[in-house]
């Protein structure tokens, strides 16, 4: 994968879920559903974003 594409995907996967889960309640879901998203799905997407960032940074060294 392209190193710059990995960095961009990583940044998007870090910023977008944080904005959706903590910044706004876009779907009008209840408190239980919001807590589920904060607890599980958001953290998974954040970790995938960190993985892409680390892969992109390591490719920049080469």
What quaternary form is this?
Answer: single chain
Overall shape: it is elongated
The pLDDT mean sits at 76
Distance between the termini: 14 Å
Number of strands: 0
**Secondary-structure element pattern, one letter each:** HH
Q: Outline the low-pLDDT stretches.
A: none
Q: Give the number of helices.
A: 2
Share of residues in helices: over 70%
* Alpha carbon gyration radius: 14 Å
The biggest sheet, with number of strands, parallel, antiparallel or mixed sense and barrel status, is: none
Strand content: under 5%
Structural class: mainly alpha
Describe this entry's structure for a reader.
The protein has 62 residues and is an all-alpha fold. Helix content is 84%, strand content 0%. The protein has two helices and no strands. The chain has helices at residues 3-23, 31-61. The radius of gyration is 14 Å and the shape is elongated.
Question: Which SSEs are present, and which pair or pack?
Answer:
Blueprint: H1 3-23, H2 31-61
How is this structure best summarized?
Helices cover 84% and strands 0% of the residues. By secondary structure, it is an all-alpha fold.
Keywords:
single chain; elongated; mainly alpha; 84% helix; 62 residues
């Amino acid at each position: 994968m392209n190193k710059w594409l990995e960095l961009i995907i990583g940044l998007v996967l870090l910023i977008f879920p944080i904005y959706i889960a903590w910044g706004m309640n876009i779907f009008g879901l209840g408190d239980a559903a919001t807590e589920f998203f904060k607890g599980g799905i958001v953290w998974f997407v954040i970790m995938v974003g960190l993985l892409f960032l680390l892969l992109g940074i390591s490719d920049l060294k080469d």
